[in-house]
Write a structure and sequence with these properties.
Strand order of the largest sheet: 1-9-8-4-5-6-7
Order of helices and strands: HEHHHEHEHEEEEEE
Shape: globular
CATH architecture: Roll
Number of domains: 1
Largest sheet: 7 strands, antiparallel
Distance between the termini: 21 Å
CATH class: Alpha Beta
Structural class: alpha+beta
CATH topology: C8orf32 fold
Helix content: 25-40%
């Protein structure tokens, strides 16, 4: 884990510069994308079943030690986003920009440790780093934190993976570095394990995903 002295300050400066360049990039991306077909008024709105309180991932706990300001929030009322055409465009643009501009790398190759959650300030990161960046980009654009939830899943190979769940009035959508499209949670093929609580980002809750588990499960 990086120290919180001068190195931490430098990393935060790089993050701010990255966010500034991101906002400029989003400003020149093509707009006008319509709502997804799955968000039609006639479709059933589907949400993940939320269970009991769960243990926060160690990566999140250590991230909060390194980036205290990112985690020093008070409990608040849950909020879902109204999925307007503009909101949908924002989601698609943020997901596409981060996936195209951040190069994937494991924490072991990047930092020499098995697990480290951080902002991809140098242009490299793993799944959690993509999620943290996308979340911060949307918050900076005015989205409520309560609708942007870091989520732990099992991917199609049965391996641990992190995605960003976006809670909307038309269902829950997933921003994912393994997928170019923004998909409803139940169309990802993932098994949902746990995520941040809407009312408190430092509290995590289990997810009652009742769909069958993937056939292939690999130990990690």
């Amino acid at each position: 884990m990086a120290s919180s002295n001068g190195t931490g300050s430098t990393m935060r400066t790089k993050t701010n510069k990255l966010l500034q360049s991101t906002c400029l990039a989003l400003g020149v991306l093509l707009a006008g994308a319509g709502l997804p077909a799955t968000a039609g008024a006639s479709d059933k709105v589907v949400f993940v079943a939320v269970g009991e309180t769960a243990r926060a991932p160690i990566g999140w706990v250590e991230f909060c030690i390194e980036y205290r300001n990112e985690c020093s929030t008070k409990p608040s009322a849950p909020r879902d986003v109204v999925l307007s055409p503009k909101a949908w465009t924002d989601l698609v643009q943020v997901n596409s920009w981060a996936n195209a501009n951040i190069k994937p790398i494991t924490d072991l190759d990047h930092w020499g440790v098995v697990e480290r959650w951080s902002f991809p300030d140098d242009g490299y990161g793993d799944c959690e780093d993509y999620v943290l960046l996308k979340r911060k980009m949307l918050v900076k654009a005015g989205w409520p934190r309560e609708a942007l939830l870091v989520t732990v899943v099992r991917d199609k190979k049965g391996e641990g993976h992190a995605v960003l769940t976006v809670k909307t009035d038309r269902g829950e959508y997933i921003l994912d570095n393994q997928e170019a499209e923004v998909l409803p949670w139940n169309k990802t093929g993932y098994r949902f394990i746990k995520r941040q609580s809407q009312s408190d980002q430092n509290t995590w809750v289990a997810l009652g995903d009742t769909r069958p588990a993937p056939v292939t499960v690999s130990a990690r």
